[in-house]
């Protein structure tokens, strides 16, 4: 519908703007000003029913945004992180990632589309021209800016069109909830989990290479063996988290070579078990010097004396390797008599 089809009395009042005005080139102004084309009124400017339809469309977009935000929250809470779905033609995707991306994208898109549709159909679209002026605004210009702002607020209809205003505020208020929900991944707090491992009284020492329980005769003098707690399998979902704390290093020494009394008391026939995790930054220790009974961390060369309570004799590590108290059960297998007496790995702020 164009303005030519509307009776003159239904058209909005004429604006004091030079639409369609032109200038002629001359010696002083060699470039002619083509002016602005005649202003064409929109259907919403001359038909209140069209304006109402646009208002409902904008409100619908804002409402969809709110529903999409609720969908984001529901997806984050209810969809398992390991669930996958097939989406043609992309293929198999994480159901959680797909749902989060779809709902959050819809929420943001609908807010933007609603704002654009509102501006294009309901806000004032009268072209305005202004001559260039110095950067420092004069008092009259500042007053004009504030007047124009107030006029724009009135013409936008934000005070009169309450449906749009309320749904827009609702959509803008709910979208940040998506970010708030993501804060859930910062928790839960570790509590005392850093102080404990899977080792407990009666847990068998299992060879990580053969996956078989260890007997004293399986550990030769001068050998280095790595063990894990009974029941911990590589297929477990939390295997990496648990082995990072429970990895064990087993060495058999001559009892007479053990200098530390507690180390000797916690050993079995010279077999000692220490944490494999370096107390500097948590690297796995794997280098053993048979003649000196020293173990070396390959990352930063921290060196520990396994014959003297695994104390630090060189390098940046701050304290000795924790020792695990072991014994032999009735079936002849090596077993733990409890957990480590102190947290394994690097020092952390909860220590002490």
Keywords:
352 residues; alpha+beta; 5-stranded antiparallel β-sheet; 4-stranded antiparallel β-sheet; 8 helices; 32% helix; elongated
Write the layout of secondary structure elements.
Elements (H helix, E strand, L loop, with lengths): L42 H4 L1 H31 L5 E4 L3 E4 H27 L17 H18 L5 H13 L1 H7 L22 E3 L16 E6 L9 H8 L1 E5 L8 H5 L5 E5 L11 E3 L4 E3 L6 E3 L5 E4 L8 E2 L1 E3 L5 E3 L16
Helix pairs in contact: 2-3, 2-5, 2-6
Please tally the helical runs, counting DSSP H or I stretches of 4 or more residues: 8
For the largest beta sheet, what order do the strands appear in spatially?
3-4-5-6-11
Our estimate of the beta-strand percent is 5-15%
Q: Encode the helix/strand succession as letters.
A: HHEEHHHHEEHEHEEEEEEEE
Oligomer: single chain
- Helix residue percentage: 25-40%
How many runs of DSSP E, i.e. beta strands? 13
Low-pLDDT runs: 14-20
Principal-axes shape call:
elongated
Q: Would you tell me the overall average pLDDT? A: 86
The main pleated sheet reads as:
5 strands, antiparallel
Radius of gyration: 38 Å
What structural class do you assign from the helix and strand content?
alpha+beta
Termini Cα gap: 80 Å
């Amino acid at each position: 519908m164009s303005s030519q089809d509307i009776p003159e009395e239904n058209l909005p009042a004429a604006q004091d703007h030079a639409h369609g005005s032109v200038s002629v080139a001359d010696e002083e102004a060699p470039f002619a000003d083509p002016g602005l084309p005649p202003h064409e009124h929109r259907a919403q400017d001359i038909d209140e029913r069209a304006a109402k339809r646009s208002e409902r469309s904008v409100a619908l977009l804002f409402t969809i945004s709110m529903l999409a935000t609720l969908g984001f929250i529901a997806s984050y809470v209810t969809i398992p992180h390991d669930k996958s779905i097939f989406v043609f033609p992309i293929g198999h995707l994480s159901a959680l990632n797909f749902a989060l991306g779809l709902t959050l994208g819809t929420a943001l898109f609908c807010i933007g589309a609603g704002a654009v549709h509102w501006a294009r159909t309901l806000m004032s679209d009268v072209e305005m021209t202004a001559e260039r002026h110095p950067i420092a605004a004069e008092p009259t210009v500042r007053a004009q800016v504030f007047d124009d702002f107030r006029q724009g607020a009135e013409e936008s209809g934000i005070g009169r069109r309450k449906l749009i205003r309320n749904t827009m505020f609702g959509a803008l208020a709910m979208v940040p909830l998506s970010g708030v929900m993501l804060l859930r991944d910062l928790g839960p707090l570790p509590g005392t989990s850093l102080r404990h491992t899977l080792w407990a009284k009666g847990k068998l020492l299992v060879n990580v290479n053969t996956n078989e329980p260890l007997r004293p005769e399986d550990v030769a003098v001068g050998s280095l063996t790595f063990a894990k707690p009974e029941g911990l399998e590589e297929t477990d979902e939390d295997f990496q988290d648990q082995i990072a704390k429970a990895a064990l290093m087993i060495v058999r020494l001559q009892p007479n070579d053990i200098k530390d009394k507690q180390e000797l008391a916690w050993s079995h026939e010279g077999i000692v078990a220490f944490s494999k995790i370096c107390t500097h930054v948590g690297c796995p220790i794997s280098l053993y010097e048979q003649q000196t009974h020293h173990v070396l961390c390959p990352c930063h060369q921290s060196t520990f004396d396994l014959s003297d309570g695994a104390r630090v004799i060189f390098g940046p590590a701050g304290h000795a390797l924790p020792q695990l108290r072991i014994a032999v059960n009735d079936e002849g297998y090596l077993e733990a008599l409890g957990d480590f007496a102190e947290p394994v790995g690097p020092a952390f702020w909860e220590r002490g």
